[in-house]
Amino acid sequence: MNTSVLRKVDATHAPSVPHQRSVSPDGEVPDDDIVAELCAALFSLLGRKDQRRQAEQYLRGLLTTRGRKSIRNIAAHLGRPGLEQSLHHFVASSTWDWQPLRGALAGYLEHTIAPQAWVIQPMHIPKAGKYSVGVDEQFAPHLGQVVRGQQVIGAWLASPTVSAPVNWRMVLPESWVNDPERRARAEVPERTAPESAEECAVSVALQMARLWNIPRRPAVLDLRRCDIGAAARSLASGGVPFLARISPSSPLSVA
Question: How far apart are alpha carbons 223 and 221 in whole angstroms?
Answer without folding.
Answer: 6
